[in-house]
Queue: 4 jobs
Job 1
Amino acid sequence: MAIKALGFDIDGTLYPHWMMILSGLPSFITNPRLFIYFSRARQALRENPDYLSHLPFRKRQAKIISQYLKTEENRVGEILDRNFYKLWERSFRLIKPFPGLKHTLEELSGRGYPLGVLSDFPVGDKLSFLGVESLLSCALSAEDCGYLKPHKKPFLILAETLGFPPEEILYVGNSYSKDIIGAKAAGMRTALIINHPRDHYEADIQFSSYRELPAYVSALEEKLLL
């Protein structure tokens, strides 16, 4: 079955992971305890994805953090919005894409592939800062889907938004445990951007440079059509 569309993670996938860490420093410096509890809460929601699943994701996240901080959850939500999300978003003005990213997306789009993104974090203006916003047909946050990666629901929503069944979508990410495992669980083909390929990783493609990706996609297409 042919590849009909591609999906991409953002942070660490469209630009280097170290830039993501650097962008998060202002939030960590402003409130290190909040930063640590934010990470713990998200890990808890990965391990128990159905915890209070009737509530919006941000409320579930704030409730967990409020238990650590012993602070009313509405207050936690306000602090998170001000001292984490908005502060972090301002820092993204400094991010730069991986070399060859825009040219590769242009080439893939020119071949007729619809392109979309699915990130665990809010997309905000990241795609604009990276200079690729016009090349993408949809941009989703797993938070808005109610579940973080590697839960398969965000990937299924991405497939629905792109308009193709999961098995006709190639998802590109930098995290094996979140991006690749999650996309595979949803039935997608997968591509892992990684400096050094690993034999035990079950990804359809492993690549280290965006300049290589179009050729890998072509090779995968040929393999699937045999």
Job 2
Amino acid sequence: MRRVFEFFVAFVGIVILSPALLTIATLVMAHDGGSVFYRARRVGRNGRFFGLYKFRTMIPNADKEGGALTVSGDIRVTPIGRFLRRHKLDELPQLLNVLKGDMSLVGPRPEDPRYIKYYSPEQRRVLTISPGITSPASLRFRNEEALLSGQDWEKKYLEEILPRKLALELEYFPGRSFWRDIRIIIRTLGGKPGWSSD
């Protein structure tokens, strides 16, 4: 039932947002002539790899010019990309991932494969759940990019941010329900940071 609902919502969302999607795609391509989409390799349910779709927000071949994560003031981000990231519009193509069944609307944010090896056995429980476009951790760390600064940004991510994000996901999803997921979606659309379980 959840899968049918999410497929329907994703399909309707793409139809309704198609003018905006087309406009964003045109702006991204017009900026430097590069590709419209960025397909990031991520780890999904049961450790399966899949390609996560985003509007490209960085210069072409940005992955060869820096780290896996985007840090504060990252010079690889284009001007249009910075606007898309600020308003989370770069995430809209993930509705295609929901249509394909790679992702859910709500679920733990899918991680870059290079960081999965740092998960503890308890933290790896998040891989038993379909990843999502939004989640409690996504709301709490809505401005994660701003927290990653300095030369030790990766250490900070691994030792501070990632454990906190995984703890939030593990705390929420054993008791997930349709209506709790709806509340998370509403909070995400409203751009409201933070999370509480009530």
Job 3
Amino acid sequence: MSFWLAALAAALALTLPTGWEAALTGFAVASSALAYLLWRSGLAQLRRAGAVHMPWPGAAPLTRSALDEATALIEDCCARTGGFEAALHGVAHILKTELGALQVVVYRVLGADETHARVSELIDTPPGFQSTEHRVHLRHSALGRAIVAQRASLDTSGAVVLPVPGPGGVVAAIEMTGMQIDIDEDALTTLLTLAQAQLAERAEPACKSRRPLRGGQRCARLGENA
């Protein structure tokens, strides 16, 4: 509506008698600015909506037996993939497909202090690429709380986080948002616990196989500065 009001004011400024041009032009500019702000606000609202749990209406919740295929796929993925990061991305893809998540992000946990964890997003293509390191609060975010608890969690915001423990603490995490399928909570917990155990087995040898870093650094772990 603001956009069309701006267009109408601009048209009237060209057709009405002399004396109204400045007022109508100012009104058109103000309406255009309002239209832009409303558009940006709408985009932000859509992004926030992606993180809200919105199951399909009328669909029966998935039970443990319905997730048997997902369980088998995760076990097969972890057994066949060549490395820890490949297993992370493979399990993340399976969970996104089977659980109906709108967005799935894989993180490498680089270390943590008393209040924040240092993480970077792992990008599937090219393999091994990760984004710039950033900090997440351990108490005020779903990802941070899952890292502290070291177990899979379903947050009140609708985010599902699967932390992956390694030698000494959490070394990676998978975060899912915008769940579109209603799932029985016990069945979801069972599936995520299995996925966590499978990935944890891959995490330990991957961590041990890294070459020692300068200064005696070790694999990043919770509560340790990497």
Job 4
Amino acid sequence: MVIDERLRRAPVVPLVQAEDPETAVCIAGALSAGGLELIEVVLRTAGALACLQAVAAAVPGALIGAGTVLDGEQAKAALAAGARFLVSPGLDEGVVAVAADHGVPAFLGVATATECQRAWNLGLRTVKFFPAGNIGGPAMIKALSAAFRGMKFMPTGGVSAANLAEYLAVPSVAACGGSWLTPPDAVTAGDYGEITRLASEALAIAKSKRSN
């Protein structure tokens, strides 16, 4: 799959949250300039779908997905706006069904062994691990991986440049997601150069860790 290859090259998925399309495009462009190839536009604002559509059109070099997708109807709307993958904070069968119907990857959130088992039985083999920093971090992922040996994890929530290498050292971690790459202060100030710097830093950490 295209997304698997991109995750291998750049196993960091930044989150973009904006109220207006112009800001979203600037953020996404800065992330792409820093070398990050998958960008998740989160559906947390009133203008999120417009932002998603604008980013998908304006940053063709990146693979754009929708995050914080809570149900099947949101999943359909996100796909109509141009999303090429879906991410949910939790495990929702409606989102899984829409993704399967449209043939797009979906990364549903898990936090426990029970949720991992439900995800496995729904056919999911890569899941979001959220909120990673509050539910055991790398140690918890290692513990779950012992039981769910064919499952890959995408930890999000509490991931930063300081602990990115520790997460990526876990063999079952496919990639890490997070909002540390798009700090609100930099967005408010229009300091998109800082966002590019953070993206480049994260990519360098990832490449260094994954090349060992």
